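Fold this sequence, please.
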Amino acid sequence: MTIKIKVSLEDLYNGKDMEIKYTRNTICPHCRGSGADNPDDVAECPKCRGKGIVIETRHLGPGFVQ
C-alpha cells in the first residue's frame, strides 16, 4: 500500500511518529459479497451464465457484423 503524506525534513530527521487513517472495502461476513441472506438464494444468471458479460453478434447488412 502506498500513501502520500507531506512531512518536513526535520520530521524525517527526528523520526516523528504520525497517525494515518484510511478506509478500505471489505467483504461482508454475513453474505460473503453475494447480497443474499441465504446462500441457497444465489442463482446463476441464465443470460450470462455467471460471467458478467454477454456477447451478441448482430448482422447490420451484407458484410457488416457487429
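The first strand starts at residue 59 and ends at 61. The radius of gyration is 25 Å.
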